[in-house]
């Protein structure tokens, strides 16, 4: 008999662009507390715009991400560190996307890439 599971879905978007490092670290610490408060065995999915590029390739970070990110920045490193701490994975890096599915704004030959991260708990139990 299969036991029903709870799915916790969080939208953790917070504009951290231009914020001091201390404020960014406080945000991640508060998010850690939220995730740690969710009972073990529940499935957790976070959809958020962290303004972070987690990096192309995954050398050293294979346990939390795939190979299809964008050049890593500080905010992206914070996403990867969070995923490691919480035993989660940045799931939208496991699949290659066509350019038109990654771009959010395009004008005059310039484009902006989506920065939305989808993070999911890896060991949600059964």
UniProtKB/TrEMBL annotation:
Spans annotated as Disordered: 102-126
**Stored InterPro entries:** Endo/exonu/phosph_ase_sf, Swc5/CFDP1/2
Give the protein's recorded name. Craniofacial development protein 2-like
Q: Where is the composition biased (Basic and acidic residues)?
A: 115-126
Cite the PANTHER family for this sequence: BUCENTAUR RELATED (PTHR23227), ENDONUCLEASE_EXONUCLEASE_PHOSPHATASE DOMAIN-CONTAINING PROTEIN (PTHR23227:SF83)
The species this protein was found in: Hemibagrus guttatus
From what superkingdom does this record's organism come? Eukaryota
**Which taxonomic lineage is given here?**
Eukaryota, Metazoa, Chordata, Craniata, Vertebrata
